[in-house]
Amino acid sequence: GSLLFHQLPLVEIDGMKLVQCRAILSYIAGKYNLYGKDLKERALIDMYVEGISDLMQLILMFPFSPPEAKEKNIAKIAEKAKERYFPVFEKVRDGEDVPRKPAFTIIRNFPKSKNVLVLMLSGL
């Protein structure tokens, strides 16, 4: 069928049926010239996208923590986010060493509060 790996998302564009989030996003970014003007900008974008992906993996695995480990795991996630990921995203958000391009808009709109992760996870 249309679903190459039998899973969503599926986007039909330019006569193609694209699956997998990263493939879809890369295609759209390339088509609309949002993926950086040169190899260096594309590499920067890829680094930040992978960083966001790594952070999201930590967050997405949290609900599967055993009940006795939830408190320890949320503290570990929050610590990694605050020490490893947030400082990098904040530098981009504040325009340090990053081009002012549409491709960096998502990272530039990263919340200013370092407690956003704890707030997101508190309801789980």
Structure at a glance:
Keywords: Transferase. This protein is mostly helical and 124 residues long.
What does this 3D model show about the protein?
The protein is 55% helix and 6% strand. By secondary structure, it is mainly alpha-helical. The chain has 2 domains: 1-32, no CATH class; 37-121, Up-down Bundle (Glutathione S-transferase Yfyf (Class Pi), Chain A, domain 2). The model has no long low-confidence stretch (mean pLDDT 79).
Sheet with the most strands? 2 strands, antiparallel
| Count of DSSP strands | 2
Mean pLDDT: 79
State the CATH class of the largest domain.
Mainly Alpha
Spatial gap, N to C terminus:
36 Å
List SSEs in N-to-C order.
Answer: EEHHHHH
The structural domain count equals 2
Please report the number of helical segments: 5
The secondary structure category is mainly alpha
Low-confidence stretches: none
* CATH topology-level fold name of the largest domain: Glutathione S-transferase Yfyf (Class Pi), Chain A, domain 2
Percent of sequence in beta strands: 5-15%
The best one-word shape is flat
Q: What radius of gyration results from the CA coordinates?
A: 17 Å
CATH architecture annotation of the largest domain: Up-down Bundle
What percent of the residues sit in helical stretches (DSSP H or I)?
40-55%
